[in-house]
Amino acid sequence: MRTPMSQAEQFEGLVAWLRKALVSPEQFTVGYNAETSEFIRFNKGKVRQAGVVQQASLSLKLINEGRHASVNVTLAGEPAVDQQRVADALKQLRDTVPLLPVDPYLLLNPEPWHSHTEQAEALPDTAQVLDEIRRAAHGVDLVGFYASGPISYGYASSQGALGWHEANSFNFDWSLFHSNGQAVKASYAGAQWDSERFAQRMQLAREQLAFLDRPAHVLAPGEYRAYLAPAALEEVMSMLCWGGFSAQALASKYSPLQKLYGGDAELSPLVSLDEHVSESLSPAFSGEGYPRQDLSLVKHGKAAEQLVSSRSAAEYGLTINGAPGSEAPSALAMAAGQLAQADILKQLGTGLYISNLWYLNYSDQPAARLTGMTRFATFWVEDGEIKAPVNTMRFDDSVYSLLGSQLEALTAERELLVSASTYDQRQTASNLLPGAVVKKLTLTL
């Protein structure tokens, strides 16, 4: 019996056909996305829905003397069927490209690079995971979503580039609900399931759930010491990733970190941020066809490198460093601090323990000033002990304060937070973040 072709082999077969189908001076680039994902939904600690999604698609770009157009093709996994779909797409593009103007910022990579990565760590056994979740959720109202499986990316060009990346990962995103309607939110994600680590995450969530029994502590608007857990800090960093490190946004003076990169502001020397592709789930090449590299974005509070895509390089005369077209980090890592996990409450003393932030937006983008809401498990702490939950409140503060002048400590332990997004398909984007103690957080209402 003939062994079925792997996804990588199917992709390479389509690329080989495309290279033969070209007519000079045509060029092409092609991107490939695929997943085989198991999804399990929980309600009241029990499995309510389970299924598997297997899908693959191809994005084909045809270039002819500076003019180009793209089309997405859904693949069937049958070589003959997929080849015909790609052939139809190529014909459609050949009809379209002559109608378009020349793109002055098109910058193709002429190098015939090759890259092949398979992060094939064994995925956790589903039966084992379900058993651990059921036991951990005994006696509490758990609502959650578990996703697991390989995600694949491919890239090829008529210039001879060929890249393949496949990574196994899982993501369990859950909440524990109290009978009064409040909840504690938590997650556990990665490439290797660690039963002890999962049990620790669940135990912390259960301990926080118990505090929701207590009457809420009422706070007036004002300035408070605060601890931002990694999930809360992720919301702050996600806002900064929207243009903060983008060469295009910086060149057009639209970046929220314009003052940082302009040398007019600094963050705390404790803050170092890297785009750390080499030890992440993300591919080592961009969808634009350039190899990616680790980058130092912020070093000890001062601006370092930018994320430069091919279009920004062409428009502003910069050097490409493999950034995607969005020029947003996909493997952001913040350097750890020295605060031990066991000493967080002691270091905080009296103030707010904030597990999550929600609905963030800019109240003053040029000043990197953010507003948003506390949500889920936010607690009032006195003398290093949690005393009571705090109702949802709005904060309004500057990143130059939270991660700058008012940053007191970062935790030695960091948490890997993998994107839980399933729009179009699962994602490999991640943030590796510590928790942060700040001397002052401004609550407005």
From TrEMBL:
<dbReference type="InterPro" id="IPR045569">
    <property type="entry name" value="Metalloprtase-TldD/E_C"/>
</dbReference>
<dbReference type="InterPro" id="IPR036059">
    <property type="entry name" value="TldD/PmbA_sf"/>
</dbReference>
<dbReference type="GO" id="GO:0006508">
    <property type="term" value="P:proteolysis"/>
</dbReference>
<feature type="domain" description="Metalloprotease TldD/E C-terminal">
    <location>
        <begin position="221"/>
        <end position="442"/>
    </location>
</feature>
<dbReference type="GO" id="GO:0008237">
    <property type="term" value="F:metallopeptidase activity"/>
</dbReference>
<dbReference type="Pfam" id="PF19289">
    <property type="entry name" value="PmbA_TldD_3rd"/>
</dbReference>
<protein>
    <submittedName>
        <fullName>TldD/PmbA family protein</fullName>
    </submittedName>
</protein>
